[in-house]
Amino acid sequence: MAEFDFRNKINWRRRYRSPQGVKSEHEIVRIFESDRGRIVNSPAIRRLQQKTQVFPLERNAAVRTRLTHSMEVQQVGRYIAKEVLSRLKERRLLAEYGLDELTGPFESIVEMSCLMHDIGNPPFGHFGEAAINDWFRQRLVPADATSQPLSGDRCQVAVLQLHEGEDALNELRRKVRNDICQFEGNAQGIRLVHTLLRMNLTWAQVGGILKYTRPAWFTGPTPESHSYLMKKPGFYLSEEEYFVRLRKELSLDEYCRFPLTWIMEAADDISYCVADLEDAVEKRIFSAEQLYQHLRDAWGDHQAGDLFAQVVQNAWDKSMTNSMQRSVEDQFFMYLRVNTLNKLVPYAAQRFIDNLPTIFPGCFNHALLEDDSPYSRLLKLYKNVAVRHVFSHPDVEQLELQGYRVIKGLLDIYQPLLLLGADDFRLLVEEASGRRLPIETRLFHKLSGRHRLAYIEAMSHVNRNDARFPVWEYYYRCRLIQDYISGMTDLYAWDEYRKLMAVE
Question: Using an 8 Å Cβ cutoff, are 184 and 233 in contact?
């Protein structure tokens, strides 16, 4: 059992100005309280209040944003963490697992990971991700064009063109191209906390948001043993050095994740599956009664006492019985949420404990609520009904298409900064002006100072005399543009697009 010593995982040290020496329980708690303060007060958390959960540009405050969703995930994550610790305590395993003095940090890491889990998401959610990736792929692909020079509006991309007899440089060019075209909210979250916001969180707290372990530039065959963990990009080339250190500090083998991340992931799955349906009712996409019928039809044959009867049927029956006191909709979702949590949270906690032999080292290749159980079936029921009746609704699809167009439009507007030669762009960075470049100068002035500093810091570590300098410079310039666009809120992106397109 000593192999499950969480004192080797809950690393309270930091990358910079890390406290030294063995710490008492009280001091370690204070360190993680400092993490909480850094996270709660960060601008990335505040921006979540104007980022999409399901319905972009929503003005109804009762409909969830990324912030209200993240707060709900935080509460569910805390519930699961407490359930795990309670069950371990009942079995008198807390001390044996090194958790007897770390219950507070255990809960805190889970809670703050839940609150942060979406901070890297761009405006308009997954459609924002798709827009960024599509835009860059159209300009950086085909990847292996070695014979014909790039021309026209793609001239600057020639620094990423492959050349014969330059194996080392070509390998870097391939990695850079793949990395730039694999923007992903989870990887951007790692970049935010370390590179852009410099939050200097504890290693354990950063480990809690590392949901996927595939490098963004990875193109080889995915090991079957880690197929789930490598489902999406988890970090960028720009954070490779930091990630290597993170793995070392958390004692993680290649492509493995931090144990408490499974709890954050389960909390997210439980929270959004009900929340998306509730928001759809709030938006009048369907009524509570129609939703109940959709759920009943999608479940299929059900029997008295099965999980559908205990959760969904029970919630509907109670809401109809008490409808004179409150609206049917309010009653139904109150009972549905409570019933769902009371079933899925204990199951997720037990799955975590039962699979500790593979979760502790970080190689459990599934989500906690991904199996053949009725609990997993219930979760899939909610998700399938949402996909069929919410995400495919014409109003939702229209808003998503608008968001996609806004992001691509903004990238078109800022494209002149990517078409500049390295020397011209350096003049912009150093002088912040240029009479020869009136458009580019004004676009550069609009970029966030924090993002510009990240570019300058990255380039300060690249030797100008190195043959790889042009490739690295262009890579960090692309990152600069992606950082700026992805950091916008939905409303800011919409307003900027309208202003710069002169449609007001």
Answer: yes
Tokens found for residue 312: 């969904």
Here the tokens at position 5 are 């010593």
Q: State if pTM tops 0.85.
A: yes
Of the candidate ranges 154-163, 170-179, 198-207, the one whose mean pLDDT is the lowest: 154-163
CB-count exposure of residue 465 (10 Å: 0-12, 13-18, 19+): exposed
Q: Is 69 a catalytic residue?
A: yes
Q: Which of 64, 66, 69, 351 is catalytic?
A: 69
Q: What is the dihedral of CA 316, 320, 325, 330, to 10 degrees?
A: 30
pLDDT tens-digit map of 112-127:
999 999 999 999 989 9
Whether 249 has a pLDDT exceeding 60, the answer reads: yes
What is d(CA 153, CA 4) in angstroms, rounded to the nearest whole number?
A: 56
Q: Which of 279, 251, 483, 266 is nearest to 386 (CA)?
A: 279
Neighbours of 234 (CB within 10 A): 25
117 a catalytic residue:
yes
DSSP 82-94: HHHHHHHHHTT-T
Catalytic residue among 14, 38, 47, 117: 117
Going from the C-alpha of 286 to that of each of 274, 277, 315, 387, the distances in angstroms are 14, 9, 17, 14
From the candidates 442, 445, 464, 498, which is the catalytic residue? 442
Residues linked to residue 202 through DSSP beta bridges, in sequence order: 14
- Mark whether 490 is an active-site residue: no
- Least-confidence region, from 156-160, 227-231, 322-326, 349-353: 322-326
State whether the Cα torsion 398-44-200-5 is positive or negative.
Answer: negative
Q: Is 163 a catalytic residue?
A: no
Mean pLDDT of 63-88: 95
User: In sequence order, what are the residues at sequence separation of 6 or more whose Cβ sits closer than 8 angstroms to the Cβ of residue 181?
Assistant: 133, 136, 137, 140, 141
C-alpha dihedral over 376, 69, 44, 109, to 10 degrees?
-50
Q: Quick one: pLDDT at residue 388?
A: 95
Give the integer Cα–Cα distance in Å for 298 and 302. 11
Closest C-alpha to 91, from 350, 358, 368: 350
Contact predicate 65/57, CB 8 Å: no
Catalytic annotation present for 377: no
Region label for 51, one of left (φ > 0), alpha (ψ between -120 and 50) or beta (otherwise): beta
pLDDT band at 446 (very low <50, low <70, confident <90, very high): very high
